[in-house]
Design brief:
By secondary structure, the protein is of the alpha/beta class. It contains 16 helices and ten strands.
Length: 331
């Protein structure tokens, strides 16, 4: 009798195994994301991928770095990407050109500027007035780093075009090299370059533009309105996964975050990565939810207006959809 029971169980097991082998798992939906640059500043994005939050939502995020706002927006508008991670100012520029398929901001990733003021010489008790009469190596004209940089200088009573020698005709990728080669007394740099320069004795971090400028939608996930209308469930899933990552980053230590995103920065010293993550966390650069609110939107436009780069003032509701992020934050 026991022999027959064992035989029956074996047959049932084989049948079950065969059934399992024959069943195909549903393929994950591919979402093509173009990021404006590769940066520790975007840690929650990489956490969402590495921790499987996108996969949990049955999404396969195909990430590519497009190196520049213009190239990123071109990829999005030409259907080379489904979603773009780039500064919200680009959606305003596109709208001003009369696009009949507006680019909609639906999930905010970072909520402050990500650059730091680095001096060539060590400065004790730094005051912003010390910039007057110096050579300042800034960022490309029309981009958020440059606009925020000038906004902060003006907030401290400095006219960037009169009170110092402002250099802003160097490509983003070459700014750090120009400073390292001897150009400028001060420079506006992203991490981890700022911390690397400090460690190597090439410069000294004296101030944070992110702390000085307040909350602003510095980098946001956006998509064409037509894509969002046709793929509303996909955008919901994407935003839910992002929110999970934002919450995880908010609760995790700098070392835990640095360990998770390490595969994206293989050439960066782990200790530097941890320092950078801690710096961004402590100044509140990583948004803890994906909601781009009215106040942040107005602050962005004020900064653009002050820089003379705002083509026209756009209502928050025209280019920002908060309903998706609000829904994700409540689930």
């Amino acid at each position: 009798m026991k022999k027959w029971i064992r035989t029956g169980m074996a047959v049932a097991g084989i049948a079950l195994l065969a059934s399992g082998c024959g069943k195909q798992a549903e393929p994950l939906e591919k979402v093509r994301v173009a990021e404006v640059t590769r940066s520790i500043f975007y840690a929650p994005e990489y956490v969402a991928i590495e921790k499987g939050f996108f996969e949990d939502e049955e999404l396969n995020v195909e990430l590519k770095t497009t190196w520049g706002g213009d190239k990123t927006m071109t990829a999005l508008l030409s259907n080379g990407a489904d979603i773009a991670l780039v500064g919200s100012e680009t959606s305003i520029y596109v709208h001003a050109q009369g696009s009949d398929d507006p680019v909609i901001n639906f999930a905010q990733l970072t909520q402050t500027d990500g650059t730091f003021l680095v001096s060539r010489e060590k400065v004790e008790n730094f005051e912003w007035d010390q910039l007057k009469g110096t050579t300042f190596l800034g960022q490309r004209k029309g981009g958020m780093p440059q606009m925020v940089g000038e906004f902060v200088l003006k907030e401290h009573g400095i006219d960037p075009h009169k009170d110092l020698d402002l250099i802003q005709n160097i490509d983003f990728a070459n700014v750090a090299n120009a400073f390292a080669s001897g150009t400028g007394d001060y420079v506006q740099l992203f991490e981890p370059t700022a911390s690397i320069f400090e460690k190597e004795g090439k410069g000294h971090i004296v101030a944070s533009f992110g702390t000085e400028s307040g909350h602003v939608p510095y980098t946001t996930f956006m998509a064409k309105e037509s894509y969002m209308n046709k793929n509303d469930e996909t955008v919901d899933k994407f935003t839910r996964a992002l929110y999970k990552a934002q919450q995880w980053v908010d609760q995790a230590s700098a070392k835990e975050i640095a360990d998770v995103i390490a595969p994206y920065f293989e050439d960066t010293d782990p200790a530097i990565m941890e320092t950078v993550v801690d710096r961004y966390k402590s100044q509140g650069s990583y948004a803890t939810d994906p909601i781009l609110d009215q106040e942040e939107w107005e602050n962005l436009q004020n900064i653009m207006d002050e820089a003379g780069e705002l083509p026209e003032r756009i209502d928050h509701d025209t280019l920002v959809n908060t309903s998706i992020a609000e829904k994700a934050s409540k689930e």
